[in-house]
Amino acid sequence: MDSTRKLWAGLAVLLFASFAALLWVGSEIHRQAPPMPEQVVTTDGTVVYTRADIETGRQVWQSIGGQQLGSIWGHGGYVAPDWGADWLHREAEAILDAWAAREHGVDSYRQLDEPTQAAYAKRVQALLRPNTWDAGTATITLHAERAAAMAKVSAHYESLFSNDPATAELREAYAMRNDTVPGAEHRRQLAAFYWWAAWASVTERPGSEISYTANWPHDELVGNTPPSNLLIWTVFSVLFLIAGVGLLGWHYATSHGEEMQPVLPKSDPLALIKVTPSMRATAKYFWVVIALFLVQILLGATTAHYQVEGQEAYGFALSEILPYSLTRTWHTQLAVLWIATAWLGMGLYIAPAISGYEPKFQRLGVNLLWTCLLVIVVGSFAGQWMAVMQKLGLAHNFWFGHQGWEYVDLGRFWQWFLFVGLLLWLTLVGRALWPAMRKGAESRSIVGLLFLSVVAIGVFYSAGLMWGEHSHLSMVEYWRWWVVHLWVEGFFEVFAVAVIAFLFTRLGLLQVRSATVAVLFATIIFMAGGVLGTLHHLYFTGTPTAVIGLGASFSALEVVPLAYVGFEAWHNYRLGKATPWMARYKWPIMFFLAVSFWNLVGAGLFGFLINPPLPLYYMQGLNLTANHGHTAMFGVYGMLGIGLMLFCLRGLKPDLQWSERLLKTSFWSLNIGLAGMSLFTLLPLGILQLDAAIEHGYWFARSAEFMQQPIVDLLVWMRVPADTLFSVGAVSLAWFVFRLWVAPKRGAPVSSATTVAAAAIVPRR
């Protein structure tokens, strides 16, 4: 068996074992998730909440933006608090204050001496932590003292989500519009859902001393401190990382230098590929990419500004028309949409280029899919606006409004529409690739891996359809991360690796055989940690402790291939200098170099900073998470999307002279702006929050008291220069693309004789 077959066999075994383990974990999450009670009663039988209250409360939460307005169990927005952590601390303090008033005649327990406060803390933990869930009756029983405190906290939330002047200042601090939830009953039910999230965070699992969320969030007042196994698995994750880097280093040391350099073509083979009608029709995809990218930046600036002014933008009451939860929804959703559109357009362009075959009605399919994408964007955004403005109603919100889950916010109808669109894309790309697969015009393995990644992209989005409107919160999080981690961060990356390998082999810069081995090996290394690494998002979402062990071990392996991105960057840079005509691809390759850099920094350094269990216990949902998200999402996938788009544009307009000035401005402005955003705002703000979370508790790091400090306002304002520079880069890129069609500059024509000669070039095996 040759090396290629061995790698294919290894990849198959790896994927089978990884997904088997991931599905087993899903079954355990389903079995051990925090229970949903039929009713919550006091010891004297008074009903506090029913299951209908909690379930309807979650529907209300989803309709107002869900994870885009604050967070639940650490997943979501950063301006408003984590509602479960906030409720938990408020409830504990309400109980303590009641005891202090009754037993010592003071207004607050904080007025008591330290020994008394310590004794009170033990008493409140004894009240909150025991599990009173009765599986036989599906009932949670509470002490009357706790029920009284819950009523007090509920009244606070009912005021906050209304237009009550008493909580107007806090609404502004949380960037909430007035009357976020118009109905009084819905506000009460929303509070019931927040209570249940807090209950699961402090109530100990049966037979255990840790809560359903592994004692998250950190709050020593209620006894939520990190379990010892977090430290143990953090140490193991570091050991796995060191071992993985060592093994990969050994591989590079033993295999480096084996590749024979091909005889380089004298002209650019890709520039002379015949552009088919369907390939030409992909141009409109890249126009949409630019439009969505610009709108996303505008919404991102608006969302960031809300953190300073709360409900306004320079005096204009913007929240009454475009609330924070909506601008953040569209900002995060557009990040996925424009990057995915760039990659979808690349797939539709590259498939006929690989096979040299234009299937019947391919152009019609490309145009139809483009139309569907526009309808999905406009339709889903309109539904989300109606939902957040409370004009849609709970009966229709799940299907046509706002599901409330970060990155998969669009209503279920639009999810199905998008899934059907992806299947159409899979069909279009697959049937154009099939002749190359059958005839072996290029390396079967590279094209085969490309085809399989196309299938995975089309099919795995279905994970977003696996939960229903009333599915358990833990199971929704499990399937949601299949979409965000596996679909976006996994199979799209494999697709990109295969496309880049094809481009370099087609350009004659790499031997097909060595490129095939490299691509398969890279895919194995990435998937070794990538599949089960999904679990690091689920440590504290009501999941069993096995999630922490598996997630810590395999998420560490995700960082291993990033340890050698310098080799990849240098390799790509060297290929870009290989021949004079490679100057045509200078800027696509520069964007690939940026991908390597941000892979190391954004995904690698900033990712591993927060991914091990013990650090994530304190950092989940802080701006350190946002720092990783921005630098990895745009730095890796956004830069990659732009680089792939530029390759396609070079093929669509082979004879045009590109504006060096515009592309240089775009490249450096985007990269420096992203770095400034990270270093001047997100990273220092996240570190300040981390210090607050460790010293005072997670609730404080996310509180208005902390987030409204002058230093926080200063750090947010320090984003302005970086954001402005980033916007200049985006506008420069948009102007560059615009001029390719509106004011093109012709370069040297390609002669027909050279075309025939170049077309005959086949990458050497």
Walk me through the structure.
The protein is an all-alpha fold and 765 residues long. Among the domains are: 36-227, no CATH class; 278-439. Helices cover 68% and strands 2% of the residues. It has 28 helices and six strands. Helix 1 (3-32) packs parallel to helix 17, helix 16 (473-506) packs antiparallel against helix 17 (512-530) and helix 23 runs antiparallel to helix 26 (710-717). The two termini are 18 Å apart. Mean pLDDT is 89; it is low at 750-765.
Note the topology:
Layout: H1 3-32, E1 39-42, E2 47-50, H2 51-63, E3 71-72, E4 75-76, H3 83-104, H4 114-128, E5 133-134, E6 139-142, H5 144-160, H6 168-173, H7 184-202, H8 228-255, H9 277-281, H10 283-309, H11 324-355, H12 362-388, H13 394-400, H14 412-439, H15 444-460, H16 473-506, H17 512-530, H18 546-559, H19 565-576, H20 586-610, H21 613-619, H22 623-652, H23 660-695, H24 698-701, H25 704-707, H26 710-717, H27 719-742, H28 752-759
Parallel strand pairs: 1-6
Antiparallel strand pairs: 1-2, 3-4, 5-6
Keywords:
four-stranded mixed beta sheet; globular; mainly alpha; 765 residues; 28 helices; 68% helix; heme binding; NorB_cytochrome_c-like; transmembrane; single chain; Cyt_c_oxase-like_su1_sf
Radius of gyration equals 27 Å
Assembly category:
single chain
- Range of helix content: 55-70%
Mean pLDDT: 89
Domain Nitric oxide reductase subunit B cytochrome c-like: 37-218
InterPro entries: Cyt_c_oxase-like_su1_sf (IPR036927), Cyt_C_Oxase_1 (IPR000883), NorB_cytochrome_c-like (IPR054309)
Pfam families: COX1, NorB_cytochrome_c-like
Organism: Pseudoxanthomonas suwonensis (strain 11-1)
